[in-house]
């Protein structure tokens, strides 16, 4: 809220929101959520989250409990700052088809455009990654602090 009456008058009916974005630079992402039989275990190692960790609004990892994940989510958990907190089992050698990574709402798999409903890619292109790495490469796992993801799949 705006506590200064002069600024409140100037802004009128403008509504402000705050968003936190988690951006992960991953070199080998797929356009679709694919099933390779990979399983992730949260090890309770993120400070402040000893019992469970919510990656987004439909990826909740309870400490020690196995969770099936798509190839892109497995990459996010094993190739980023989260790698020390997760144990990911499996590789990308055996493909089992499209992964239903929709958070239980059906769909999953592929989507050709950002923001389309039902399933899709975790890949988002950006020229300004927030993690300090070089720009121009695909990013995965765009999350906000209210649990929104890239609007397409996992």
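Sequence proposed for the structure above (154 residues):
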């Amino acid at each position: 809220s705006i506590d200064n009456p002069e600024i409140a008058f100037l802004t009128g009916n403008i509504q402000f929101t705050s968003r936190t974005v988690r951006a992960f630079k991953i070199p080998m992402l797929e356009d679709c959520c694919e099933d390779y039989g990979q399983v992730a275990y949260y090890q309770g190692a993120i400070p402040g989250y000893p019992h469970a960790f919510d990656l987004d609004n439909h990826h909740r990892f309870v400490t020690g409990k196995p969770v099936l994940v798509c190839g892109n989510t497995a990459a996010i958990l094993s190739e980023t700052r989260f790698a020390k907190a997760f144990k990911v089992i499996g590789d990308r050698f055996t493909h089992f088809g499209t992964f239903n990574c929709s958070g239980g709402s059906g769909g999953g798999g592929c989507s050709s455009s950002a923001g389309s409903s039902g399933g899709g890619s975790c890949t988002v292109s950006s020229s300004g990654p927030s993690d300090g790495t070089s720009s121009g490469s695909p990013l995965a796992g765009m999350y906000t602090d209210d649990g929104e993801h890239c609007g397409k799949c996992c």
